[in-house]
Amino acid sequence: LTWFLLAPCRVPTVPVKNLSGSSPVNPALAGITGILMSAAGLPVCLTRPPKLVLHPPPVSKSDIQSIPGISHTCRKTTKKQAKKGKTPEEVLKKYLQKVRHPPDEDCTICMERLSAPSGYKGPQPAVKPDLVGKLVKCGHVFHLHCLVAMYNNGNKDGSLQCPTCKTIYGVKTGTQPPGKMEYHIIPHALPGHSDCKTIRIIYNIPPGVQGPEHPNPGKSFTARGFPRHCYLPDSEKGRKVLKLLLVAWDRRLIFAIGTSSTTGESDTVIWNEIHHKTEFGSNLTGHGYPDINYLDNVLAELAAQGITEESLMQEKD
């Protein structure tokens, strides 16, 4: 019987897991299962479940390094600086061409025909409901009335995002609450990136009170799970991602206040469509390494927020 249990596993094998449970019942059941399977002539492969590794081994302060080519090791954001002086109509005028003869199709904002007046029923903008405009870069056509209403319901930061194709006009900013972002190199390698060290990012946002740009102004918000530790390989592409994440942080696009998709809690700080890797040494949750597509995927997510290599040049200017 011992020979069966110790014999090398051959295909097909039936793994028996959970050998390291806190209760003696688990190993006992595994042993009984192994005996029964061996008696039936089935090969047994005793394996341990993979372990979740959220954090790297301890790192002393002397082992932490700044990142070459990136100034400082910390960024802070403060409350939103309101932009003054321009009406929504003046902002949109930069991005639109008037359309004298609207096409025979629906406005995708109000779902009324472009040849008919806007069907928007909310607070009425100071624009005639039958005027139609075309966005200059993507060419999509909407009621001016609807675009102004959409702008007024958004962040009012001087930018506009086409509701059809998501093309961004101007510089998109978000509603991330005040906080701190730290970043540095630690002397450990991520799975799948054994040829380089690791960039560690630490986000810290405290709870507070929602501002006028948030879902419930004046109401308090929670901030669960901070500080949040995230990881990138210290490779050329990893450093590029970090530089773009710094732009996203400065534009307040990494976090938002909303309802948590995991806990259902409302009025709390949530991730904002730019995925991060929060699991250091495994990938059991899907938020770790190895993941050969992650860097390309996060670059695409950043681009969807209007953050590309051109953004780095704009920040320098």
Automatic annotation (TrEMBL):
<dbReference type="Pfam" id="PF13445">
    <property type="entry name" value="zf-RING_UBOX"/>
</dbReference>
<dbReference type="GO" id="GO:0008270">
    <property type="term" value="F:zinc ion binding"/>
</dbReference>
<keyword id="KW-0479">Metal-binding</keyword>
<dbReference type="GO" id="GO:0005737">
    <property type="term" value="C:cytoplasm"/>
</dbReference>
<keyword id="KW-0862">Zinc</keyword>
<dbReference type="GO" id="GO:0061630">
    <property type="term" value="F:ubiquitin protein ligase activity"/>
</dbReference>
<dbReference type="InterPro" id="IPR027370">
    <property type="entry name" value="Znf-RING_euk"/>
</dbReference>
<dbReference type="GO" id="GO:0016567">
    <property type="term" value="P:protein ubiquitination"/>
</dbReference>
<comment type="pathway">
    <text>Protein modification; protein ubiquitination.</text>
</comment>
<keyword id="KW-0863">Zinc-finger</keyword>
<keyword id="KW-0677">Repeat</keyword>
<dbReference type="InterPro" id="IPR039396">
    <property type="entry name" value="Deltex_C"/>
</dbReference>
<keyword id="KW-0914">Notch signaling pathway</keyword>
<dbReference type="GO" id="GO:0007219">
    <property type="term" value="P:Notch signaling pathway"/>
</dbReference>
<dbReference type="InterPro" id="IPR001841">
    <property type="entry name" value="Znf_RING"/>
</dbReference>
<dbReference type="InterPro" id="IPR039399">
    <property type="entry name" value="Deltex_C_sf"/>
</dbReference>
<keyword id="KW-0808">Transferase</keyword>
<feature type="domain" description="RING-type">
    <location>
        <begin position="107"/>
        <end position="166"/>
    </location>
</feature>
<comment type="similarity">
    <text>Belongs to the Deltex family.</text>
</comment>
<protein>
    <recommendedName>
        <fullName>E3 ubiquitin-protein ligase</fullName>
        <ecNumber>2.3.2.27</ecNumber>
    </recommendedName>
</protein>
<dbReference type="InterPro" id="IPR013083">
    <property type="entry name" value="Znf_RING/FYVE/PHD"/>
</dbReference>
<dbReference type="Pfam" id="PF18102">
    <property type="entry name" value="DTC"/>
</dbReference>
<keyword id="KW-0963">Cytoplasm</keyword>
<dbReference type="InterPro" id="IPR039398">
    <property type="entry name" value="Deltex_fam"/>
</dbReference>
